[in-house]
Each structure stands twice: as C-alpha cells, then as structure tokens.
Design goal:
alpha/beta, 2 domains, Rossmann fold, 8 helices, 10-stranded mixed sheet, single chain, 38% helix, two-stranded antiparallel sheet
Length: 279
C-alpha cells in the first residue's frame, strides 16, 4: 500500500480516525493524507445563533467565524503533530466544496480511506450508520475502513465469507493492503442456513487461497440465519477485532451483505470494519 487518506470533519475532529490512520500508516510505511472537509457552507453555528435584538448580528457572526477558523486550525495542527511523532510521510488537504463529493473524488486516488462511523458533516447527530457514511460507502472508489469512536490496537481479524465474489474481493483487498496484519489471529466466518451442510463454500479453493496468505487462519461455519448469527458473534468480540466484509452498494450485492446487513453490523457492533466492494 502506498497511500492512505484519513477524512476529518475539522469542526468535530475524530481522534479515533487520527489514531487508526497514524498507527496503520506507521505499520505499513505508507504516505498518509489528512483530508479536512471544510465545506464553506458548513459551520458550527446555526442561523438563530446570529440573532440579536436588531436582527442578524454582524458582530456575533464575526466572533463565530473566528471560533470556527481556530477550531479547524487546531484540528489540522493536532493531525500534523501526531504524524510527526510517528515519523510519517504525510500531507494535508483542505477541501472547501461539498464534502461528500470531495471525499468521493479523493477516494479515486488512494488505496484506503479511513473515516469515523459517526461522521455526518452537519450540525446534527445521527444513528450509525449516518446518511453521510451510507452515501459515501455506496460510491467510494477504494476500500473504506470505518472506525469506532475509540481507538484500540488491532489484535484479531474476522473475515466474513459467503462464497460470493464480493466477499472474496474484500478478503483480497485486505490481503493486498495490509499484509503486515497477516500474522494476527485470523478467523473466517461463514453462516449456512439450517438445510445446508456445514462445509465452507468453495472449501478447497478458498483454503488453497488462504493458505498462501493466512496459513494459520481458522474456519468457523455456523448454522442459522446470517443476519442473526453474525451480529451475535461480532457482539462477543473485543474492540481489538477488525472485521472484513464485502459488498456495500445499491443493486446487485452479495446475498449476505446487501445494504441492510452492512448497516446492521455498523449499528450493532462498535468494531473497525474494512468494507470493500467490487464495481
């Protein structure tokens, strides 16, 4: 891997995104770009914050603009300090147009995008997954690492595999992007409906592939319904576990990872998730 971008709302700066990004960049000796989404139409204040007895107060507006400028500068300075402490090669981009379009454009020219699951780029808080994250994942042009609000070093990897090309693609992307994590405890999880056998889908081919990349991987096949069993299993994991999963797009998707399933996992499990879908 050559380039990671970490996306930030500089008015609600995510230290978790910073920590995941800088630590992964350090492990992989990768160039890290901090992308600060400074949409010119997005501020920390609302219009009613500007109202005074005489109407809209220019004085209040000036003070709030100065405050926002200082907040954004402090976020950038913190990111740069963290990169310098880790000895990273890094850069900073300030994107002042529509945030969603800017980050989608940036995703074309990077290997991996890291972003906090709670990002909204609005005044308002939303349940996870937010509409901003949902729209981003639908059209991102690279794998996306969605991270929880608190950083924990990654110590285990769970790969969700249903035999569909999209789930294999996600595993390949993890393999190519983060080979340095190949020594971690790795578990491949499949769920089979009650009427099917417990054999891993494409058992011989899958294990032949995995043997070359994760020779110590263990395989778990669970009987039941994926929507229920995966959530239960992931909720039992420690916060040091990274989950690798496949398709997240509108249209044709893996039978497990249709949009509602990926949404459920992000909402139910506060774990870092590497989401990669083939176009």
């Amino acid at each position: 891997m050559k380039k990671i971008i970490a996306a930030f709302d500089s008015l609600k700066y995510s230290e978790s995104t910073r920590d995941y990004a800088t630590n992964i960049a350090k492990q992989t000796s990768t160039h890290l770009v901090g992308v600060f989404l400074d949409d010119a139409l997005y501020t920390s204040y609302k219009i009613y914050d500007l109202i005074a007895k005489e109407g809209v107060s220019q004085e209040k507006l000036n003070k709030l603009e100065v405050k926002d400028k200082a907040t954004r500068a402090a976020a950038t300075a913190d990111f740069e300090k963290a990169c310098q402490q880790q000895g990273l090669e890094y850069a900073v981009h300030h994107n002042r147009n529509a945030a969603l379009q800017e980050i989608k454009q940036e995703s074309i020219y990077t290997d991996l995008l890291i972003i906090d699951a709670k990002e909204t780029l609005t005044h308002y808080s939303e349940e996870i997954p937010t509409s901003f994250i949902r729209d981003l994942l639908t059209d991102a042009q690279c794998p996306v690492l969605i991270v929880p609000s608190k950083y924990k070093p990654i110590e285990k990897v769970i790969m969700l595999f249903d035999g569909e090309p999209s789930s294999v693609h996600a595993i390949k992307m993890f393999t190519y992007l983060l080979p340095e994590l190949g020594s971690l405890k790795t578990e491949v999880i499949s769920v089979k409906t009650p009427e099917n056998s417990r054999h891993l889908p494409d058992n011989k081919l899958m294990k032949e592939f995995m043997k070359r990349h994760f020779p110590k991987a263990i395989y778990t096949v669970i009987k039941g319904w994926a929507e229920e069993e995966i959530v239960k299993l992931l909720q039992q994991q420690t916060s040091n576990t990274l989950v690798v999963l496949g398709a997240y797009r509108r249209g044709t998707v893996s039978r497990w990872f249709r949009e509602s399933m990926a949404d459920t996992l992000m909402k139910a499990c506060e774990l870092p998730m590497l989401i990669a879908h083939s176009k």
